[in-house]
Amino acid sequence: MRDENEGRTADGPSRRRVMKTAALATAAATVTGLGPAGTPAARAAGGPRTGRIDTHHHALPPEMRRWAVEHGLLPPEGGPNWGRWDLNKTLDTMDDLGIAAGVASAPAPPEIFRDRKLAVSGTRVFNESLAGLVQDHPTRFGFFAYLPLLHVDVAIQEAAYALDELGADGVLLMANAGGRYLGDPVFEPLFAELDRRSAVVFTHPAGLADARPVPGVEEWIADFMLDTTRAALSLVNAGTLDRYRRLSVILSHAGGFLPYLGGRVEHAGRQGEGPSPAAFRRAVRRFYYDTAMPASPYATPTLLAAVGAGRLLFGTDWPQVVRPEVDRTTALLDRDPSLSRRAHAAVNRENALRLLPTLARRLRK
Q1: Does some domain include residue 165?
Q2: Cβ distance 318 to 93 under 8 Å?
Q3: Would 220 be classed as within a structural domain?
Q4: What is the pTM of this model?
Q5: How far apart are alpha carbons 127 and 119 in whole angstroms?
Q6: Helix (H, G, I), strand (E, B) or coil at 203
Q7: Which pLDDT tens digit goes with each residue over 84-105?
Q8: What is the CATH number of the domain that holds 184?
Q9: How far apart (Å, rounded) are the C-alpha atoms in residues 159 and 330?
């Protein structure tokens, strides 16, 4: 049996993948009808110095998967897409889509770390596993360290360890924990410490803290979007971004509904029923937004009008989003008429390099 890794270097595609990519470019144009210029495979030539930076990119290295299985979070076989993460498939997908590097994260429901000892040990497994992935493939991956929000003191300690010793590019915060959203005063010491370190915070939805699902409508379709929106409005209303000006906060999935309900928020603020319109406008322009579902053409015009291309980051949500959909959403982004050539360059790569200097240094070596 031929080794799947044959010919692959730690930081580049195998000879097999290079040859396969050329065939994919032609085949995909025929099957999808997108045409060579709009086909993701046609853009696979992008390398570490030119390719995309995927800031919404999930990973489950072997040690982390073993921990999840041992603690009943995943079945030994099968399970959700993210639970079947595979390094070779990931690198193949990145090569085909011209993704130079993925900033890996492992979002997990805060409730699994309700026990303090488990929070300490499990979080360490998560972050050391991702750090090992980066160490093995320094020009293909970065990572956002997971912080257990139900134990703020543990989160502070883990942030210091991950940022100072593991070389994390930032931290991952779930949108809510224990029914508390990120603007809650209980998280103030954590944000103060992250601000002191000028940290990048990647937020990810956890599921609504107090809602029942709509029958027939999966939670990720709308509830996750509202969860992100609630987290953002919580931060705005608490004045967190105004107090901590060195923080950079990425909102998943293009900010949920946040950029699209600005008029309603400002209307409420003028009536004294929410943050002031000025505070809301400042915050909207402070956040960063990844392109991982929603992608163009629905979201882009409003998002560009609200914040400009300089705050948008390329994201795929791989591997929770399956490969055909990652291909399609990436192709739609490439063909989006709302984005100029210069804006595409900013979204695909330049904004992330500016935001994540540690990763940028590795890619430029």
Answers
A1: yes
A2: yes
A3: yes
A4: 0.85
A5: 12
A6: strand
A7: 899 999 999 999 999 999 999 9
A8: 3.20.20.140
A9: 32
